[in-house]
Amino acid sequence: MAAQDVLGQTARLASSSALLQVLFRVVTFGLNAFTLRYLSRELIGVVNVRLTLLYSTVVFLAREAFRRACLSGSTKRNWTKTINLLWLTVPLGVFWSLILGLVWLHLLEVPDPSVVPHYQAGVVAFGLSAIIELLGEPFWVLAQAHLFVRLKVIAESLSVVSKCILTVTLVTLYPQWGLYIFSLAQLLYVSVLVMCYVIYFVMFLGSPEATKKSFPVARVKALLPNFVEDETFVNWKEARLTWSFFKQSFLKQILTEGERYVMTFLNVLNFGDQGVYDIVNNLGSLVARFIFLPIEESFYVFFAKVLERGKTVKDQKQDDVAMAANVLELLLKLVLLIGLTITVFGYAYSQLALDIYGGSMLSSGTGPALLRCYSLYVLFLAINGVTECFTFALMCKEEVDRYNFVMLALSFIFLCISYFLTHWYGSVGFILANCFNMGIRIAHSTHYIHDYFRDSTHRPLSGLLPSPALLLLYIISAGVTAFSEVWFCCDKGWMARLLHISTGALCLAATLVTMFCTETELVHFVRSQ
Fold first, then answer.
1. Where found, per UniProt (predicted)?
2. Are 294 and 182 within one domain?
């Protein structure tokens, strides 16, 4: 597949993934607002922090390394061995579910049954849901490698909508069920997700469309583990790369979910405060999740396909190098401008957003300060996602192993900083620690990118430099909206609030017009791809 075709399909995949993330976050956003009126914030804290952490840890440790290894390189490979390797995620998931389930049941603080009933059933259900989801891993990787955009959109949309409908129904009719509600909804979500992938491939394999595309897997049976005589069960090169990524993924999970591990294991916040933190975190991460994550996942595939892992820039096809450098520069510019917009306008509108969303329970206390800090954190997330996406797609096994040592040291430092900052600044300390963590990771990735392109004429890191006119307008907008918040928000009535919103809208409009006038190449890239 030509590099230009890969770029086009990757962009469509990123766009579809972004739309999916919009759906997921909007559903979560609405679901939190709805459940706040029926359930206690302690129960929401246990579900969204404690149990979701169990599920995400099992899934991440069991599959992340396999995904990165098996999506690297060309789609022309021995898919029998790749599928065999991917099925190893299931026993690995069972192992992690049992180990972590015991920890969650017997070593961590158990919530008060009168406030959060059926905790044990919740732990079992969320651990089981992780194993069920891993049953669909070979199907997911095969679909992602061949850029089956529509399949991903349909499968994940149906699963989210099903989960939402069941949750709303049970919360309305049987709020006393407690964690049973979220356990059943989680099991339904993963079941629908896996069944969509399975049903699609059962219908697709052997069809005229599959034959026309020369799809590498001909029968459904080939998607199950297969032993081939006189051949190894798995591709050992992929297996070794998986092991390298596994060591890295273990550390990355600590860094990604570090604040939840600190909350869960060190009890620095009670379950109610954890609930408020998670609600603010979901609100603050709306744009980060539905734009930055799909870009990172989709363009990781693009860079891994266009450039060969472990080769220097001189040993690559120069046309592909030029395209990759141009795409990287424009992606950095895109996420930088999105991140700056959120940081500038998020500061002045955090309190208003929380007051509209959750009332005084969220807009008083630490809620506004949390969301303001998160607006800054989004800028770090934006840059880190793209720089690490390129770096991980190009690192050879030895470089990945070396980076693991960096991540190990960073994980330890991050956990220590999180603990102390939380004691000094409360839940805001978690976000400050995350900013530090992302800053170090960005420094490492940008250093790698600079060294990689040093012997070429391409300088993709220039994408991190916005135009002076746009930068000036961001500074003016920050000052004007902060002044507007002092005068009009948020206890002076709805007319004053509307004036505050209008001020922000005018500043945002001026920023967007300037962006369109000064960043013409980026505008063309977004429109064309």
1. Endoplasmic reticulum membrane
2. no
